[in-house]
Amino acid sequence: HPKVSTGRKYLAKLLKAEGKDDEAKRQYDIAIATQENILDPNSPNYASDLLDLAGLLTDQGYYDKATPHYECALKFCEEQFGPDHLKVAKALNDLAELLFLQGNYDQAKSLHKRALRIRQENLGPDHPEVAQSLNNL
Q1: Considering all CA atoms of the chain, what is the largest pairwise distance in Å, rounded to the nearest integer?
Q2: Any idea what the Cα angle at residue 116 is, between residues 14 and 120, rounded to 5°?
Q3: Cα torsion 89, 75, 40, 2: sign
Q4: Cβ contacts of residue 78 below 8 Å, gap of 6+?
Q5: Does residue 61 sit in helix, strand or coil?
Q6: What φ, ψ does residue 104 adopt, rounded to 5°?
Q7: What ranges cover the TPR repeats (predicted)?
Q8: Residue ranges of the domains in the chain?
Q9: N or C: which end of the chain has fewer CB within 10 A?
Q10: What is the CATH number of domain 2-136?
């Protein structure tokens, strides 16, 4: 049931906040597998779950494990919402942050610029998310 998957995601967030990263990862893995195999993998929650798991892995320093989750979330958002949607900007921003941590500064800058453009077009120049994108550059 979709609510069980959502419950696992919220449990994972709680566990992460408590510093129980391994348990949080397990809950994210289950939530994502449920989305992929039982529920609708086209649900907007799918990309959010992937980004949350990738963020956890990034925080743990597992950059190589995080990368495919960020890339999958970005691809999903582009296909489901179009290339100029705010969910795409979020995925771009998160992937760019990982690339920056890995020392891939040119790639990170390119993705941050694209996220900035999307946010400016959708939110206007004075929105906090636009400020975040400017700060990331």
Answers
A1: 42
A2: 105
A3: negative
A4: 88
A5: coil
A6: -90, 70
A7: 89-122
A8: 2-136
A9: N
A10: 1.25.40.10
Rounded Cα gap, residues 42 and 39, in angstroms: 9
Express each pLDDT in 41-90 by its tens digit: 677 778 888 999 999 999 999 999 999 999 999 999 999 999 999 999 99
Q: How many CB atoms lie within 10 A of CB 44?
A: 13
Helix (H) or strand (E) holding 18: none
To which residue do tokens 């989305």 refer? 35
pTM: 0.85
Beta carbons within 10 angstroms of residue 25's beta carbon: 19
Q: Which helix (H) or strand (E) holds 51?
A: helix 44-59
Placement of tokens 């890339």 in the chain: 71
Look up residue 54 and give its two tokens: 């990738």
